[in-house]
């Protein structure tokens, strides 16, 4: 267990190093020159040169990357070009909003997905089952902005149940969270369904039924816990995806998370912020996968033995 | 015989038939846009706005209404089908090609280069795809082709992984060893024995991937960094009109429905193809 953890942690660190390198090369290979952008339209070449020097952009690329990595290890993500402040606190300040949205979105996904998946598995090939299987495709085929705008139109603009945009109260959270949750739920339902079907066919479930246990008890206490493993893995993946994948939802609902921060930074070519958000997102993806990998043996002793 | 079986399989799956019909409709719209569209897509029609200058709701004259500049929405959607399908085919075709090349190379030759390629693939999975696409698209001054390439750069990873696994398992099989023992070169083994086995994978991902691509293009265009107006794309129609969505919801609803129907159809058909072409996957998930 400890060896597994150590190996995974090293892998994760290497992947993060790779992500940092690629982001770095990518952003500096692109035509947009931050020094020119910062200096403004009427700047003299001397001003541009001095800004370039100030930012360390005149150093050789490998030196710039090395400096970047050293700073990174000190928790320093650099300074924003436009906002003249350090990037790390900017991202930290946005983190609670994104984490709240993520947690609520995942909770909705799991709640809807578990319910539909269990029902579909119990009524295999029935109407509900077919509907769930088709709906799971609808979920992955719908653009987020469509659901976001439709929910806004129906529940905010027309019915007035929820605020149009903003942040702060639970009411503000409902529509953005449901936008994420509705779209993700289909795939959870699909995964829970197939796991449940497998578990329901096993001997110990038959034994439980034969002992005369009530159907809800067999399903909820005996079968469901063993069907949850893939759900844990999916939650791990979603933690990573939602860290940066909420850009659209945050843009539509004016949700002040790191997606919005990245979106604003991209429009201003604020490279340190873009790199910071990319790294934090990659970190979340790696961490999410790591948590899913490590949670599996903790939950299921059979994996621990293997 | 195969045709008959395919036909029977189709008859049992009405959802799949619906998907094929939608794809055929979108393809027809894209191919015959100049003949099908009632107006030119960039024609700002004189009667296309109300007296107050607001877009017109669906009517006899404008079947799906008009947009904020008085252009016929149906015509823009029909021309938008061109953009979506073109990007879908080019971007996803490129992605599948890159994925197959990387996967087959790494799987067949293995060794240090193969290992490095697959570690790079792993690395790309940890890359926030949407963010990467947004960064590239925002900084590269997007045109239709740039958008397609950006999407291809993001989408090849999954194909590479599958192609890698399949090539690895094929490369160790006896008939390949026999072929090699008889002195066949790499090119012959790859061309005659490995690639033909990957055709189903290419077909399935060539279809499923279009759904992902159409969605990603729509999302980038919705954010204003995809296909640039006035060239119509389903995503940028929503982008242009989102601030009017309370007074003119059809401007969001119809393009949104087009994106959803197209992506859903490619997903359903791709999934069905996977069932048909790979019996071992049948009945899974």
Structure description:
The complex is a heterodimer of chains A (306) and B (285). Chain A is an all-alpha fold. Chain A folds into two domains: 2-73, no CATH class; 96-256, MetI-like fold. Chain A is 79% helix and 0% strand. Chain A has 15 helices and no strands. In chain A, helix 9 (203-210) runs antiparallel to helix 10. Chain A is globular, with a radius of gyration of 24 Å. In chain B, helix 4 packs antiparallel against helix 10 (186-222). The longest helix of chain B has 37 residues, at 73-109. Chain B has a single domain, classed as MetI-like (MetI-like fold, Orthogonal Bundle), CATH 1.10.3720. Chain B is mainly α and 285 residues long. Chains A and B meet through helix 1, helix 6, helix 7, helix 8 and helix 11 of A and helix 5, helix 6, helix 10 and helix 12 of B.
Count of separate structural domains of chain A:
2
Determine the structural class of chain B based on helices, strands and strand pairing.
Answer: mainly alpha
> What is the count of β-strands of chain A?
0
Number of strands of chain B: 0
Multimeric status of the protein: heterodimer
Terminus-to-terminus distance of chain B: 28 Å
Protein structure class of chain A: mainly alpha
Strand content of chain B: under 5%
What is the 3D form of chain A? globular
CATH second-level architecture of chain B: Orthogonal Bundle
List key phrases describing it:
heterodimer; A: 306 residues; mainly alpha; MetI-like fold; 2 domains; B: 285 residues; elongated
């Amino acid at each position: 267990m400890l060896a597994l953890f150590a190996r995974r942690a090293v892998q994760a660190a290497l992947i993060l190093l790779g992500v940092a390198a690629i982001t770095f090369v990518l952003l500096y290979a692109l035509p947009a020159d931050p020094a020119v952008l910062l200096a403004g339209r009427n700047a003299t070449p001397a001003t541009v040169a001095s800004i370039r020097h100030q930012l360390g952009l005149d150093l050789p690329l490998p030196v710039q990357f090395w400096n970047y990595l050293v700073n990174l290890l000190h928790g320093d993500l650099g300074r924003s070009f436009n906002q003249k402040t350090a990037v790390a606190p900017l991202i930290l300040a946005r983190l609670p909003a994104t984490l709240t949205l993520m947690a609520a979105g995942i909770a909705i996904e799991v709640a809807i997905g578990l319910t539909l998946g269990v029902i579909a598995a119990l009524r295999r090939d029935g109407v509900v089952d077919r509907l769930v299987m088709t709906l799971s495709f609808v979920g992955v085929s719908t653009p987020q902005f469509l659901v976001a705008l439709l929910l806004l139109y129906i529940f905010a603009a027309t019915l007035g149940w929820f605020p149009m945009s903003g942040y702060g109260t639970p009411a503000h959270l409902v529509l953005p969270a449901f936008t994420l949750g509705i779209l993700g739920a289909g795939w959870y339902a699909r995964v829970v369904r197939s796991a449940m079907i497998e578990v329901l066919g096993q001997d110990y479930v038959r034994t439980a039924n034969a002992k005369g246990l009530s159907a809800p008890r067999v399903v909820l206490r005996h079968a469901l816990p063993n069907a949850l493993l893939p759900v844990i893995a999916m939650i791990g993946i979603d933690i990573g995806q939602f860290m940066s994948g909420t850009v659209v939802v945050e843009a539509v609902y004016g949700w002040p998370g790191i997606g919005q921060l990245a979106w604003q930074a991209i429009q201003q070519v604020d490279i340190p912020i873009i790199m910071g958000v990319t790294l934090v997102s990659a970190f979340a993806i790696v961490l999410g996968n790591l948590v899913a990998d490590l949670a599996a043996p903790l939950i299921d002793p059979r994996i621990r033995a293997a | 015989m195969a045709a008959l079986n395919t036909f029977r399989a189709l008859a049992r799956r009405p959802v799949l038939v619906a998907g094929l019909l939608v794809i055929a409709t979108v393809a027809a719209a894209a191919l015959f846009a100049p003949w099908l569209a009632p107006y030119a897509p960039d024609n700002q029609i004189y009667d296309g706005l109300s007296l107050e200058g607001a877009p017109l709701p669906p009517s006899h004259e404008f079947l799906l209404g008009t947009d904020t500049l008085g252009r016929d929405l149906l015509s823009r959607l029909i021309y938008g089908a061109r953009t979506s399908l073109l990007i879908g085919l080019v971007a996803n075709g490129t992605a599948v090609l890159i994925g197959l090349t990387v996967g087959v190379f790494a799987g067949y030759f293995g060794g240090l280069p193969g290992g490095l390629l697959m570690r790079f693939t792993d690395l790309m999975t940890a890359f926030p795809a949407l963010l990467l696409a947004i960064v590239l698209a925002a900084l590269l001054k997007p045109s239709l082709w740039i958008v397609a390439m950006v999407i291809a750069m993001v989408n090849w990873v999954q194909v590479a992984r599958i192609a890698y696994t399949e090539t690895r398992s094929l490369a160790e099989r006896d008939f390949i060893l026999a072929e090699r023992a008889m002195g066949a070169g790499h090119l012959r083994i790859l061309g005659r024995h490995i690639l033909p086995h990957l055709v189903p994978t290419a077909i399935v991902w060539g279809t499923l991937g279009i759904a992902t691509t159409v969605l990603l293009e729509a999302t980038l265009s919705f954010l204003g960094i995809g296909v640039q107006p006035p060239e119509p794309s389903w995503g940028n129609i929503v982008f242009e009109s989102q601030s009017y969505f309370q007074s003119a919801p059809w401007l969001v609803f119809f393009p949104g429905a087009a994106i959803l129907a197209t992506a859903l159809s490619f997903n359903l058909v791709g999934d069905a193809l996977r069932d048909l072409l790979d019996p071992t996957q049948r009945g899974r998930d």
